[in-house]
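Following up on my earlier thread - several people asked me to post the actual chain instead of describing it. Fair enough. Here it is, all 136 residues.
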Amino acid sequence: MILLDTSFIVSLLNSRDVHHKKAVEILERSPEDETLGTHSLVVQETISVIARKSREQTFDCREWLTKIEEFFESLRVLDLAPTTRDVLKIIADSDCELSYVDSVLVLANRHLRAPILTFDNALQRMCNSWRMHKEG
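Reply from S.P.:
Thanks for posting it. Predicted structure:
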Protein backbone atom coordinates (compact mmCIF):
# COMPACT_ATOMS: atom_id res chain seq x y z
CA MET A 1 0.00 0.00 0.00
CA ILE A 2 1.04 3.58 -0.69
CA LEU A 3 -0.43 6.29 1.53
CA LEU A 4 -1.40 9.62 0.02
CA ASP A 5 -1.18 12.92 1.87
CA THR A 6 -3.42 15.93 1.26
CA SER A 7 -0.62 17.86 -0.45
CA PHE A 8 -0.13 15.05 -2.96
CA ILE A 9 -3.84 14.57 -3.63
CA VAL A 10 -4.47 18.29 -4.17
CA SER A 11 -1.44 18.53 -6.49
CA LEU A 12 -2.53 15.46 -8.43
CA LEU A 13 -6.06 16.68 -9.02
CA ASN A 14 -5.33 20.39 -9.55
CA SER A 15 -3.73 21.05 -12.93
CA ARG A 16 -2.93 24.60 -11.74
CA ASP A 17 -0.83 23.30 -8.85
CA VAL A 18 2.94 23.78 -9.02
CA HIS A 19 3.50 20.07 -8.24
CA HIS A 20 0.77 18.69 -10.54
CA LYS A 21 3.06 17.34 -13.25
CA LYS A 22 5.37 15.71 -10.70
CA ALA A 23 2.42 14.10 -8.88
CA VAL A 24 1.08 12.64 -12.12
CA GLU A 25 4.55 11.29 -13.04
CA ILE A 26 5.03 9.72 -9.60
CA LEU A 27 1.66 8.01 -9.74
CA GLU A 28 2.27 6.77 -13.29
CA ARG A 29 5.56 5.18 -12.13
CA SER A 30 3.95 3.32 -9.24
CA PRO A 31 3.09 -0.35 -9.80
CA GLU A 32 -0.41 -0.83 -11.24
CA ASP A 33 -1.28 -3.48 -8.67
CA GLU A 34 -0.25 -1.25 -5.74
CA THR A 35 -3.13 -0.27 -3.48
CA LEU A 36 -3.44 3.45 -2.90
CA GLY A 37 -4.81 4.51 0.44
CA THR A 38 -5.14 7.35 2.86
CA HIS A 39 -6.54 8.06 6.29
CA SER A 40 -10.10 9.29 6.78
CA LEU A 41 -8.70 12.48 8.34
CA VAL A 42 -6.83 13.19 5.10
CA VAL A 43 -10.14 12.92 3.26
CA GLN A 44 -11.61 15.57 5.57
CA GLU A 45 -8.54 17.80 5.29
CA THR A 46 -8.45 17.51 1.49
CA ILE A 47 -12.08 18.54 1.16
CA SER A 48 -11.42 21.56 3.40
CA VAL A 49 -8.35 22.56 1.36
CA ILE A 50 -10.29 22.24 -1.90
CA ALA A 51 -13.13 24.39 -0.55
CA ARG A 52 -10.64 27.07 0.52
CA LYS A 53 -8.68 26.94 -2.76
CA SER A 54 -11.89 27.20 -4.79
CA ARG A 55 -12.65 30.51 -3.06
CA GLU A 56 -9.07 31.79 -3.41
CA GLN A 57 -8.56 30.71 -7.02
CA THR A 58 -12.16 31.29 -8.13
CA PHE A 59 -12.95 27.93 -9.62
CA ASP A 60 -16.12 25.86 -9.39
CA CYS A 61 -16.15 24.17 -6.00
CA ARG A 62 -18.92 21.73 -7.01
CA GLU A 63 -16.87 20.43 -9.94
CA TRP A 64 -13.91 19.91 -7.63
CA LEU A 65 -15.97 18.15 -4.99
CA THR A 66 -17.28 15.72 -7.61
CA LYS A 67 -13.72 15.06 -8.77
CA ILE A 68 -12.59 14.52 -5.17
CA GLU A 69 -15.49 12.17 -4.43
CA GLU A 70 -14.67 10.02 -7.46
CA PHE A 71 -10.99 9.96 -6.55
CA PHE A 72 -11.62 8.90 -2.94
CA GLU A 73 -13.86 6.08 -4.14
CA SER A 74 -10.78 4.59 -5.85
CA LEU A 75 -8.72 4.64 -2.62
CA ARG A 76 -8.66 2.45 0.43
CA VAL A 77 -9.63 4.82 3.23
CA LEU A 78 -8.25 3.82 6.61
CA ASP A 79 -9.78 4.74 9.92
CA LEU A 80 -6.96 3.91 12.32
CA ALA A 81 -7.56 5.48 15.72
CA PRO A 82 -4.26 6.33 17.40
CA THR A 83 -4.13 7.49 21.00
CA THR A 84 -3.89 11.19 21.70
CA ARG A 85 -0.61 10.49 23.50
CA ASP A 86 0.90 8.91 20.36
CA VAL A 87 -0.21 11.83 18.17
CA LEU A 88 1.16 14.39 20.63
CA LYS A 89 4.49 12.53 20.73
CA ILE A 90 4.79 12.73 16.93
CA ILE A 91 3.96 16.44 17.00
CA ALA A 92 6.56 17.03 19.74
CA ASP A 93 9.16 14.90 17.90
CA SER A 94 8.63 17.09 14.83
CA ASP A 95 9.22 20.25 16.92
CA CYS A 96 5.56 21.09 16.28
CA GLU A 97 6.04 21.20 12.49
CA LEU A 98 3.38 18.55 11.88
CA SER A 99 -0.36 18.95 12.18
CA TYR A 100 -2.63 16.47 13.92
CA VAL A 101 -3.60 14.95 10.55
CA ASP A 102 0.03 14.65 9.44
CA SER A 103 0.92 12.99 12.74
CA VAL A 104 -1.85 10.43 12.31
CA LEU A 105 -0.53 9.74 8.80
CA VAL A 106 2.98 9.21 10.24
CA LEU A 107 1.54 6.68 12.67
CA ALA A 108 -0.27 4.91 9.80
CA ASN A 109 3.01 4.92 7.85
CA ARG A 110 4.78 3.25 10.77
CA HIS A 111 1.99 0.80 11.53
CA LEU A 112 1.55 -0.35 7.92
CA ARG A 113 5.18 0.17 6.84
CA ALA A 114 3.73 1.94 3.84
CA PRO A 115 5.42 4.83 2.04
CA ILE A 116 3.72 8.22 1.95
CA LEU A 117 3.42 10.34 -1.17
CA THR A 118 3.56 13.95 -0.03
CA PHE A 119 4.94 17.35 -0.98
CA ASP A 120 5.09 18.34 2.69
CA ASN A 121 8.80 18.45 3.57
CA ALA A 122 8.27 18.19 7.34
CA LEU A 123 6.06 15.13 6.92
CA GLN A 124 8.56 13.50 4.57
CA ARG A 125 11.46 14.22 6.95
CA MET A 126 9.57 12.69 9.86
CA CYS A 127 8.84 9.49 7.94
CA ASN A 128 12.41 9.27 6.62
CA SER A 129 14.01 9.88 10.02
CA TRP A 130 11.93 7.10 11.60
CA ARG A 131 12.81 4.71 8.77
CA MET A 132 16.53 5.46 9.17
CA HIS A 133 16.22 5.03 12.94
CA LYS A 134 14.54 1.62 12.52
CA GLU A 135 17.07 0.47 9.90
CA GLY A 136 20.09 1.77 11.83
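The chain has one domain: 2-135. That should answer part of your original question.
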